[in-house]
# Entry
Amino acid sequence: MMTGKTLYQIALTCIPGVGAVHARNLMGAVGDEEAIFNEKIGNLEKIPGISRRLVDEVRNPEVLRKAEKELSFIEKNNIEPLFYTQHDYPVRLTNCVDAPVLLYVKGSADLNVPRAVSIIGTRNATRYGLEFCQNFVRELSGLFPDMLAVSGLAYGIDVCAHRASLQNNVSTVAVLAHGLDRIYPSVHRKTAIEMLEKGAWVTEFPSGTEPDRFNFVKRNRIVAGMADAVVVVESGEKGGSLITAEIANSYHREVFAVPGRTTDIRSSGCNALIASNKAVLMQKTAAFIEQMGWDTAATPKQPVQKELFPDLNETEEKVFRALSGVESMHVNMLGIELNLPVSELFFALLELEMKNVVKALPGGVYKLA
# Structure
């Protein structure tokens, strides 16, 4: 949604040397994106981690000129900028310390649906991987038609996940490693256009940004952070899918990997993830649903009386109330419902476990004890 602050939100991402962490530091210290560009130099220099060189970059008039150009582009092309403080910014990403402060979104997808899964894999997919991907999306969408499937529009597994989502009428999002003035690879443009009706394109990169190799690595953290779980369908010993899986683990996301024969080089990465306990063995959709707690997450049950647990602090009470109306809930869905960072939520859940109020189940699922 465009606001009077949009120009300055874009400008914040145009400052050379200011990434997501610095941008949040500036916002935290100054409190307002527009004020950052009008703050006294002496006050900016007092902000921890902000050097004089960085202050000079903030005051460089070229920054606002770039932002004005980008604002004109997104207005002409019906692109929505989502700043990290807005309610429709992907809530799951707000729990990730290095998440972009600004996203550019084209399309109609709800990025905060109750259930979201990232499906990724090799560009050189085999028939085995493609069929698994198609069947997984079909079976999952049949049970959860309001789900969101996230991927990267690359060759192989990525575009298969998007196309399977379109075929089964579920929302799908392509996270791109370039600006929204192009689609890469161009051969997937038709699929990308079809996605806009119920899905979206998402990127942190302004127009004119080339799909350079390093941008794909940055893109992968958004793929990992936007979903409750990451499913690696096929991957070799090296590649972007394994990087995404590592990032997902650091974000406390559940990672699943589809096993393959030991002689299949396109399954070697998946087999390694499973062998090193960095991913859950992925065989059937039903097992995925059970592991994620999706089968019972919305099942109503009789609320437990709070008077039984009188010594709860404010955060613990919020968690208690959220869990008291359901059979169980995944930690990421709990974080979205309560708008709490995962780090704070895990601490509260640990305290509640020690007080015998909640019980941890496999796959990051919690229920009242």
Remarks:
- Residues 127-143 form the longest helix (17 residues).
- The first strand starts at residue 80 and ends at 83.
